[in-house]
Amino acid sequence: MELTICKSTLQRILKNISKVLKNSQSPMKIIVSNHQVTFIAGNEDVLMVINIPSETEEGLIIKRTGSVIISAKYFSDIIKKLPANIHIYLSEHSTINIQSEDIHTRIFALTDVKTLNIPDVPAEGVLSLNAAELHALIRQTVFAAAVHDNRPVLTGVKIVARHGELTFISTDAHRYSISSLAITSQLETEMIVPSESLLEWSKLSLHTEEEVALSLSKNHLALKSKHCHFYIRLIEGRYPATSDFIPKQKVSSFQIHTETFLQGIERAALFSDAKKNHHIKLQIQNGRLRISSNAKQIGMIEEWQPIEELSGKGDVEVFLDNHFLLDYLRVIDDKYICCTYSGTMKPVLFEPVKGSHFQHLISQVRSF
């Protein structure tokens, strides 16, 4: 195999590849065919395939076909240090030669690598949406999944397609997030996808309007864009029933400006006692919202914010984990949100006043 490629192109590819590398020993496969160059890298949970067509990529010249497996980290580190366009070719002794201007280096090829086999997933996508929509669904749910849990299903996001709607669901047993959008596909299916793998995909450099096709096999979900195919191994198991999580009764609810509320919670978080808890107090009094917290060794803070609209009981107080509340407020894009209180120690519901279909529950905590 032999090719010449622009350094900027190669760096863009390797930046995406780096998202799925577990350690410095992770391998990467380069396949050079007559019309494109393919890069494959991954681990036991995800596999990424990037195709670069020679017809559309300026500066890519294919001279000989072939393939090789090399260390992704060492290859990437070398490319970063080279000055200009790069000439790559495979010698007879399974050595990759890399040349840029007067700089010449070699990397030994790897053998007996079994982790770079592309999963058998249907070529055609079962449904399609643009990258911005998929990014939003992921961003509004992955943060609520468990990081480490003796129930692996809680470290994943449940994806459900049913009745013309695509829904992402996550919970770590202390909070619950659900985000959905309408789709044209009549597909009906559900799966549990590792939240970490979805987060890795969301970090890729994709155009927001680029179409992403979702394909499904028994063990894998494939997210396929124009030049990048991303394969994720599914989590096996039964996800807990969540249909009854959203409270049906309402004691009190209020609407508030999202950005103003976020800034108030960020200030209150500075005074929550990190050694004991991360609790802040929200209290409705006289048609206004009081936000407060204190740390015995530091001090306290309180502030009052205006409420846009209040219904139900007008004198309510709750204690919440500020980390959970900040996670939510930093991913919602709507200008105003509605907060619903359903009773003592019952989860508090947050949702947009209008706009996106995004609901979030946070469990109350005992007072400090």
Q: How does this model look, in words?
A:
16% of the residues lie in helices and 43% in strands. It contains 6 helices and 26 strands. α1 packs antiparallel against α2 (72-81), α3 (131-139) packs across α4 (195-202) and α5 runs antiparallel to α6 (322-329).
Strand content: 35-45%
Number of strands: 26
Mean pLDDT across the residues is 91
- Give the strand order of the largest sheet, numbering strands 1, 2, ... along the chain: 14-11-12-13-26-25-24-18-22
Tertiary shape: elongated
**So what's the oligomer here?**
single chain
Q: Tell me the span between the first and last alpha carbons.
A: 66 Å
Low-confidence stretches: none
Structural class: alpha+beta
Output the radius of gyration: 25 Å
| Major sheet details | 9 strands, antiparallel
Helix content: 10-25%
Total helix count? 6
Keywords:
368 residues, alpha+beta, nine-stranded antiparallel beta sheet, 6 helices
Summarize the structure.
The chain has 368 residues and is of the alpha+beta class. It contains six helices and 26 strands.
